[in-house]
């Protein structure tokens, strides 16, 4: 009997979602549709320039890995999350958010360090695309010191956020987590996270994957960029060298899955998308719930597509707690 179903590691970021126009992005010099790392000064400049947009802004505990682990927790998994926050108001908010979502974290997270908790400005355009400018803050210092070996060894799955590749110490922590998990018989999953991470840190991601993970999550653009191919089918073939199973999300077209033996295409419900922020994170959280509960691979993919479709049809990277149970109704 495992104490935890899922152990995750990733950046701790306070998300602020803002509705903007394509013209706003051009004026601000923000690259559309990707995550861009910025320093605190640049982020504050963006906040100042968008002051009139902040009236309806929403603040939430975020970071890709946290979104996935929180979703898995709300679906019913026992979860644990390693991250790094500072001794500031945002750090307090972040810990409280994890606790309210039922996510356990290392006791060391209570003794936060000085510095600034990471922040992410998520700019949503009318076509539902999200463009993120992230100041990692103290998350850039996340390291092997934040790993909890006891909790990891007591888990069924370990989940690694691909964004960690942009930090030398974060990348080292991700590699150490994978190696410890594999040495202890804990299954491993990793998300490629963002096309920009694949473009700028492809070699680092391959180092994080090592000899292969049990489950790899990516979207179409990430799959093509990572494998340096020009079609989803070619990417699907190439990805098999890096993992024992995978899910390539395809937006409104659903997802392409491979369970190690058989390939599946699963459809996504038709919805009106207004905010794509968090869709891939939710897909991973729902999918990991499904395979932890021994759902057939394709059924886990169908649940994940339903959950991701629900996320993009409303604002914010996560669902309300009660929505997770409603999504499970067709499969329980």
What's the quaternary structure here? single chain
The whole-angstrom Rg is: 18 Å
Helix count, DSSP H or I runs of 4 or more residues = 12
Given the helix and strand composition, which structural class is it? Answer: alpha/beta
Number of domain modules: 1
User: Per the principal axes of the C-alpha atoms, what is the gross shape?
Assistant: globular
Strand order of the largest sheet: 6-5-1-9-10-11-12-13-14
CATH superfamily: Ribokinase
Specify the helix fraction band.
Answer: 25-40%
- CATH architecture call: 3-Layer(aba) Sandwich
The CATH topology, please? UDP-N-acetylmuramoyl-L-alanine:D-glutamate ligase
Main β-sheet description: 9 strands, mixed
Provide mean pLDDT, rounded. 93
How far apart are the first and last residues' alpha carbons, in Å? Answer: 22 Å
Count the beta strands. 14
Q: Are there runs of 5+ residues with pLDDT below 50, and where?
A: none
- Elements, N to C (H/E): EEHEHEHEHEEEHEHEHEHHEEEHHH
CATH class: Alpha Beta
- Strand proportion: 15-25%
Description:
- It is a single chain.
- The protein contains 12 helices and 14 strands.
- With 332 residues, it is an alpha/beta fold.
- It has a single domain, classed as 3-Layer(aba) Sandwich (UDP-N-acetylmuramoyl-L-alanine:D-glutamate ligase), CATH 3.40.1190.20.
- A 9-stranded mixed beta sheet has the order 6-5-1-9-10-11-12-13-14, sandwiched between helices.
- The two termini are 22 Å apart.
- 50% of the residues are buried.
- The mean pLDDT is 93.
- This is Adenosine kinase.
- Belongs to the carbohydrate kinase PfkB family.
């Amino acid at each position: 009997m495992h104490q935890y179903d899922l152990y995750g590691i990733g950046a701790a970021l306070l998300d602020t979602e803002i509705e903007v126009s394509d013209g706003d992005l051009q004026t601000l010099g923000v690259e559309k549709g990707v995550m861009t790392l910025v320093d605190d000064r640049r982020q504050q400049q963006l906040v100042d320039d968008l002051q009139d947009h902040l009236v309806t802004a929403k603040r939430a505990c975020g970071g890709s890995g946290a979104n996935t682990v929180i979703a898995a927790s709300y679906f019913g998994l026992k979860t644990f999350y390693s991250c790094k926050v500072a001794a500031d108001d945002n750090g307090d908010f972040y810990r409280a958010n994890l606790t309210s979502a039922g996510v356990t974290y290392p006791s060391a997270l209570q003794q936060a360090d000085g510095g600034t908790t990471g922040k992410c400005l998520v700019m949503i355009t009318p076509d539902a695309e999200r463009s993120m400018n992230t100041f990692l803050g103290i998350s850039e210092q996340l390291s092997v010191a934040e790993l909890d070996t006891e909790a990891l060894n007591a888990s069924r799955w370990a989940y690694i956020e691909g964004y960690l590749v942009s930090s030398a110490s974060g990348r080292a922590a991700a590699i150490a987590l994978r190696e410890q998990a594999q040495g202890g018989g804990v299954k491993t999953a990793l998300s490629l996270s963002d096309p920009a991470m694949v473009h700028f840190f492809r070699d680092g991601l391959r180092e994080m994957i090592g000899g292969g993970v049990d489950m790899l999550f990516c979207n179409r653009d990430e799959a093509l960029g990572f494998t340096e191919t020009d079609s989803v089918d070619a990417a699907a073939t190439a990805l098999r060298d890096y993992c024992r199973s995978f899910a390539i999300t395809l937006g409104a077209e659903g997802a392409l899955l491979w369970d190690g033996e058989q390939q599946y295409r699963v459809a996504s419900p038709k919805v009106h998308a207004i905010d794509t922020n968090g869709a891939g994170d939710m897909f991973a959280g729902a999918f990991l719930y499904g395979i932890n509960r021994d759902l057939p691979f394709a059924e886990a993919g169908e649940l994940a597509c339903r959950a991701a479709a629900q996320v993009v049809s409303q604002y914010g990277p996560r669902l309300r707690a009660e929505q997770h149970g409603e999504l499970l109704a067709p499969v329980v």
